[in-house]
């Protein structure tokens, strides 16, 4: 019989031997299984990860393939606005906690963007982690409540004209009286935009926004600066000038001299002012004489560039004709040919109009869009400013020539633009029969000439509002939407901001002279025909338009 201590020793040795042979078969602990996102709905609808026109208290359901650890939700599902601010939310659970229900604790803001981000660190109840995170993007809907008290349509038109006029009156350059290019331009003034601004002065006098004496004094300041200070090239003005010194501000590297189209817009305005300030007193007589000097000094036919049958847009004192851009094809520059043919001193012959302006391959159209025939221009008409800038002074009603009936051209182009936005085949947010108008304007991080064939989702108020003479009903619908519904976003010191995109919840802070001016002028042409009557009362305009083959009752 063995002693007890030997038995104990043997057991110890046996235990040690077992450890050395590695025969322990107990399994290592299994980590919790990962899980994945399954699906989601916003207000009961699934539409991927991007939602627009969402109400202000949306219900977001996020469903996963595993039961969630409720304590993990708060730190791993983050609700933020587009500025990065955290949005508080409430949670609920369904489907054995595999679905979490998110709802903002307070109503979201209209026309704002929000995101809900789910981190991979969101844990399931056993402790597993989400295979990949997700982000849900929301954009809230328009607040359709009225932002301002209801007033009559006539009062609304007057309000828009008065407020928009302040861009050219209160914000004019103090030294020259000319219009700044935009509200951030400092000393940079625009010759064409100033022409549009000059046309708003008779409107302002007639509607008693200012007195006739005030309007005359501003015109004396402007005309004196243009005559005595501003740089000119063969009588033509540059696109941009320094409003204090009159020196050219290059529009681009080689665009540092004459811009004939911008000059035409300026002359269109000056001729209207000449006709308006028709008093026999010394001051108004002198103003007319100075305007005639500027008008008669423009060497329109010199811009045929060595007697070609076309006008050229630019000339540079350092680079001559290197830009080599003919003014042809249907666009915003019809007024240039009308003025060039009407000159008392440097007139062009009809062959330049026919071979140059109308001779381009893309001049005629003739196709039908949305049941409207379009006589001239590119597919779907192009940006709407084609029917605005030249027709601030030229009355298209009853106007015809060998190429078009301009009543049809201006109205149908506008109706095509309107119907394109109304149809909204690209599903742009907000486009409708009350929210329409594609033309050149600022866009997020840039500028573009919007049109049905270049639609980036940006609406410019000037497009519909400057079309009042052509589409009064449709333009009034747009005006009421812009003012009453979006007024808290786009109505400011100088009228309507330049543009907006409901796709992006983006609203421009900018005002541009070339967009503000046509609003005042074309609303007035719709109401009284004032600027049309002034411009077409010019004897030389009647002669020039007849020479080009135009026919109208006013010629």
Give a structural overview.
The chain is elongated. A 4-stranded antiparallel β-sheet has the order 1-3-6-5, with no helix packed on it. The chain is α+β, with helices and mostly antiparallel strands and 555 residues long. The longest helix is centred in the N-terminal third of the chain and has 18 residues, at 4-21. It contains 16 helices and 20 strands. Helix 3 runs antiparallel to helix 14.
Features:
555 residues, alpha+beta, Immunoglobulin-like, Glycosyltransferase, 2 domains, four-stranded antiparallel sheet, four-stranded mixed sheet, 16 helices, 20 strands, 35% helix, elongated, disordered N terminus, Glycoamylase-like_cons_dom, SbsA_Ig, Beta-glucosidase, signal
Q: How is the largest sheet built, in terms of strand order? A: 1-3-6-5
Q: Provide the domain count.
A: 2
How many H/I helices? 16
Task: Give the CATH class of the largest domain.
Answer: Mainly Alpha
Largest sheet: 4 strands, antiparallel
Q: What overall geometry do the principal axes of the alpha carbons give?
A: elongated
């Amino acid at each position: 019989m063995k002693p007890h201590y030997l038995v104990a020793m043997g057991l110890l040795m046996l235990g040690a031997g077992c450890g050395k042979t590695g025969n322990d078969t107990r399994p290592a602990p299994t980590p919790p299984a990962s899980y994945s996102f399954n699906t989601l709905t916003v207000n009961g609808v699934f539409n991927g990860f991007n939602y627009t026109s969402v109400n202000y208290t949306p219900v977001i359901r996020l469903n996963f393939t595993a039961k969630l650890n409720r304590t993990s939700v708060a730190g791993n599902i983050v609700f933020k606005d587009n500025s990065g601010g955290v949005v508080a939310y409430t949670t609920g659970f369904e489907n054995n906690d595999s679905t979490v229900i998110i709802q903002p604790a307070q109503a979201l803001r209209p026309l704002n963007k929000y995101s809900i981000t789910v981190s991979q660190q969101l844990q399931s109840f056993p402790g597993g982690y989400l295979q990949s995170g997700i982000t849900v993007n929301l954009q809230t809907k328009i607040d359709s409540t009225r932002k301002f008290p209801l007033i009559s349509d006539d009062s609304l038109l007057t309000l828009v004209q008065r407020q928009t006029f302040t861009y050219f009156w209160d914000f004019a350059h103090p030294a020259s009286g000319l219009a700044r290019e935009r509200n951030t331009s400092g000393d940079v003034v625009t010759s064409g935009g100033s022409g549009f601004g000059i046309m708003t002065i008779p409107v302002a006098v007639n509607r008693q926004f200012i007195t006739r004496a005030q309007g005359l004094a501003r015109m004396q300041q402007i005309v004196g600066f243009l005559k005595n200070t501003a740089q000119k090239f063969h009588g033509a003005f540059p696109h941009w000038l320094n409003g204090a010194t009159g020196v050219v501000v290059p529009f681009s590297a080689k665009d540092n001299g004459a811009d004939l189209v911008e000059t035409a817009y300026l002359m269109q305005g000056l001729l209207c002012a000449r006709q308006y300030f028709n008093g026999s007193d010394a001051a108004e007589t002198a103003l007319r004489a100075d305007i005639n000097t500027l008008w008669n000094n423009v060497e329109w036919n010199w811009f045929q560039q060595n007697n070609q049958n076309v006008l050229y847009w630019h000339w540079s004192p350092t680079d001559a004709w290197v830009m080599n851009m003919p003014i042809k094809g249907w666009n915003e520059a019809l007024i240039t040919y009308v003025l060039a043919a009407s000159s008392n001193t440097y007139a062009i012959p009809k062959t330049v109009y026919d071979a140059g302006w109308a001779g381009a391959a893309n001049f005629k159209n003739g196709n039908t869009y949305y049941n409207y025939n379009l006589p001239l221009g590119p597919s779907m008409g192009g940006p709407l400013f084609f029917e605005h800038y030249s027709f601030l002074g030229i009355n298209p009603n009853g106007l015809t020539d060998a190429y078009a009936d301009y009543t049809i051209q201006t109205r149908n182009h506008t109706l095509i633009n309107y119907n394109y936005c109304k149809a909204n085949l690209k599903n742009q947010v907000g486009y409708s029969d009350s929210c329409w108008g594609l033309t050149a304007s600022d866009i997020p991080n840039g500028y573009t000439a919007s049109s049905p064939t270049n639609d980036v989702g940006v609406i410019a108020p000037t497009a519909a509002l400057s079309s009042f003479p052509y589409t009064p009903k449709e333009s009034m619908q747009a005006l009421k939407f812009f003012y009453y519904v979006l007024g808290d976003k786009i109505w400011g010191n100088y009228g309507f901001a330049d543009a907006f995109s409901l796709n992006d919840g983006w609203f421009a802070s900018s005002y541009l002279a070339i967009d503000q001016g046509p609003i005042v002028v074309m609303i007035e042409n719709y109401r009284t025909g004032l600027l049309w009557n002034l411009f077409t009362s010019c004897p030389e305009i009647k002669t020039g338009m007849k020479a080009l083959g135009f026919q109208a009752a006013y010629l």
